[in-house]
Request: fold
Amino acid sequence: MLKKIIQNIIRENNKAPEAVQCLWYSDVNYLALDVELVFKTKKGYEKKRVSTLNYMDFENQKELSEEAERIGKTLAKKYNAEFYFPSPNEWSRDCPDWWKSKKAFKCEDCETPIIQTDSKYLPKKICYPCHLKREQNERLKNDQTTEDRYSFYNINLEELPILSYSTSLENLIVYQYLDKKEIENNFIGNFGTYNIDRNKLIELKTKLENEIDKILLKYNKPELPKRISKLSGTTNIIYKKVKYELFSHFDRNLIHLISNYNDYQKAINEEQQYKLFGLKEITKRDDSILRYINYKCKGECKVNEVIENYNDVISKNEVKETLERLVEVGCLLSQNNKVQITSDGKSII
Ligand SMILES: [Zn+2]
Reply:
């Protein structure tokens, strides 16, 4: 790719660039990094894009950023030009072009040169990623908002065991179809578990089966309108070895029931079990720490690593208190100054 880019530049322009710049471009569903050459002109400067690296072609933002940096630096070296990549770690799209960067305003928090926003709703002295970080830190400091979380998951599946997850019991299929009182009795305190053994799973499956059969009595193959809109897309699903074509949007409840039914049938055949886990009043702090241990530390780390990560935001004691609470409710295991996330912990984040 790099060879092709260089050949294109040589063919089109003999003039050497003053700088090579990497700048982010993004909107709601698009994130990319442009590698551009900056040329001096009679009037000032102009830029020429040599490559656009799209986020979708990479595993993560870090890989995308590293590839842009590799291309940019190689070009800069080749032309003996300045390399300018103002925000390699954050997708800050408000950075100015290289020739405006020296005089540009610098973000108060990360010192990245930025074009100050004219929005009434955003702070002018910091870049957008730092604004988000400040907001998140504020929420962690205050730690006021809480929500309840319930998950229904297959305890035998290590990878992706979560079947459903909700902030209230009422939204879960297991609650809708099994004995509500019996389930509620397990969630009187701050947290609870309700094990679904083979018999309960068969009962649940049978109830779903009755419901699905009733709906399918009225089944007709969807007639597609001439102009297919977003809402009229269809999907195929197998139920008791028969393939049904259903509207992805209008039939989503039925699709949900069938895919649950299929999962339970498989679990019954393979002697697997489900579990309903719930934790009430989970705070931003609980959620952030669980996510940090699960994603950043791959499920396990030293207590000190967690304390260090939240260094400027919450105190050592606050981190320790949160960890103790998470151990108490079964989301973490703690041993020899180490913490490890449990399946219950994983299932609610
Ligand atoms: Zn910043």
